[in-house]
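Request: Mind sharing a record?
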Amino acid sequence: MTKSTSRAPPEDAHVQRARRRRVNGAMLAAAFSLFALGVAWHEAHAPKARPADELPIMQARADDASQPAPALATPVVSGGIDLVKRGAYLARAGDCAACHTADPSRPFAGGLPIDTPFGIIVTPNITPDPDTGIGRWSDADFLRAMHEGIGKGGERLYPAFPYAEYTRVTEQDLLAIRAYLNTLTPIHFTPPANSLKFPFNQRWLMAFWNLFNFTEGRFVPDPKQSAEWNRGAYLVQGLAHCEECHTPRNFMQGLKSSARFSGAVQAGWHAFNITPDKISGVGEWRDDELIAYLSTGAAPDRANAAGPMGEVVADSTQYLSRVDLRSIVIYLRSVPPVSGGEARPRHQWGNPADDVSALRGAAIKGVNGAQLFVANCASCHSWTGQGVGASAPGAYPSLIHNSTVGASSADNLAQVILHGVRRTTKHADVLMPAFGNQLTDAQVAAIANYVTRQFGNPQSTVTAEQVASLRPPSRPQ
């Protein structure tokens, strides 16, 4: 007689998967709890902001850039038209219109799509419209958004809005901007919704981003530095938010503090190194050249602003007072220089060309960069590449000793050929037509490679495939 034993039936695969899901869920919940405790600890122990609103160095002036330089210690006007005028100046310094104006007929009404690695973020309406803008916002709501990155409804704002820099701006200056925005024409317009993939569409996750990339608090002047240095630091680190474009990013898209102002790529454009490094940065530039570049967009034999920087000059820095421009330069001179690995400054490349003689009567086969340059570019830049008009405000710039042409990447040059230049200042209305609709990717690449080889850095090249990637997605070639 055999002895029988009973055994429990084996679990089927469905039960095993359910058990694993419960275990994984518990582990995820535990990890989230640890993160939440970290956020709570950070909020409880973070250093409190030191009030600095009464310090004269913080006071911006609403003087037009063409007026005599103002004194830094002029008392702040508490209200009325002078407050609005100062707010308008500060809004220019912060370049608010650039991001919050998609349609020139709807200024400050938002709707501009910003392409980020996590999806599309669309800028909001900041006109005083009560339904679609910020007309119902209190001053406290406005300050909280600017200082803490939290909207009126308590939602966390995405860091495409540079609250990580605006947090340093004094309450006085922000309320002046608010007073100016209140005088704008209310525009009833609801911008399109953001287009972000999961989990980046979960705003509460910004608490974790803030934990590693954001320190709330106002700018504190350095008593060891001059008034001009402190003013420049206040503008560069705060309203002007220069690091947003000129500092590379970490894997979370926060600013990489170890490489401040060393250059970065934004929307396919290279924002160059602006540290005082003599080769990779602007260490060889004179103060008056830097001021001229910020106020006009042109520094002969150095650079000509195009793309996003051209817009910054046209919409913002050309309106800054001479004192503020000089203060910005003084501060930038003091930041640690960062080498980008270049062997030669960007503006020291190039020689005049004589290819036009060789092209006469020559049979051209295939895509020829020299021929395309003579046909499309020489009428303005001269077939020698030396430009037309010397250093006059409206001159066609030389391609020799030109930072864009001498850069280690030809992307900015290709972008200029594709999209052209439109930069309007008090000094000149600069226009270069866009050739993106007239030239193929191969032709744009051929022109760019000819220009860099002849007038700039010969090691800098671009392919037709790279040019294609720089075109807007809606207009494939």
